[in-house]
# Entry
Amino acid sequence: MTAPLRFGFVVLVLLGAGPAAGQSSLGGAGSLPPPQRPGGAPAPTTAPAPTTPPRAAPPPAPAPAARRPPAQPPASRPPAAAQRPAPPRETTPAPVVRAPSRPDARPARSGAPTPPQGRGRAAAGAAAGAAAGAAAAPPRPAEPATPPAPAPEPQPSVGSVTNLPLPRFAALRSDEVNLRAGPGTRFPIEWTYQRRELPVQIIREFELWRRIRDPEGTEGWVHQSTLMGRRSALVRGAPGSETALRRRAAEDAAPVARLRPGVIVRLRHCEARNPWCEAQVGEHRGWIRRADLWGVAAEEEIK
# Structure
């Protein structure tokens, strides 16, 4: 008897708990009416179990950014040496051959040495770098002014050896006369004249040496033995012009010969302060104006 009762009690207990379990599981109004209290008031219902608040929706995933095309790698720059403009290639200028400035003389030396040639682009680049460095260097302080050159010595009026007047004219004795830098054989030869009877002007004397000036203004020293007292003169004039050697000392006289500039004439007679001189060229003899000659002073007398 005991066993059946226990079983029935258990069944009742389980049946009494059924409505509460059904109401609680709904969490609000359901199919079962709420329990009534005595007096007709509804019994307080058990507070519904707190429900889990809904989870906030995750923020929308940002739209994928538009992909930019991969940046192209910068073009490889050439090395600094390639960016610099190549220095100009040096070219050796064609040699220029010049005749001596005077037809009656030749230089004793072959001339100034030719400057050394460059060594290609390396030499040009080094020169450009040196020029750039010089431009970037700070300016140098101004140097003191160069002292003035000493005044030239006064021109003597008479020779210290012969006591003859200076300056005076003479002529070269031979076809080979050396013009030296100083009064002595130890001085170098600057020119060698190769024209006999070329007129020159003596401007100084030192022992056996005479300082002369030629028709082109070049000065130097020659030995007295290379000069002679017989007088000559050089015809002046523009290139291509002609000067008449006339029968008489007059402009309207007939010409005996026509002389080109640079022709040497032998002076035979010149009166003091007379504009005409008697001269001879080869077999031709006549008169020529003093102003058309180099080798005779304006008022000089030649007999």
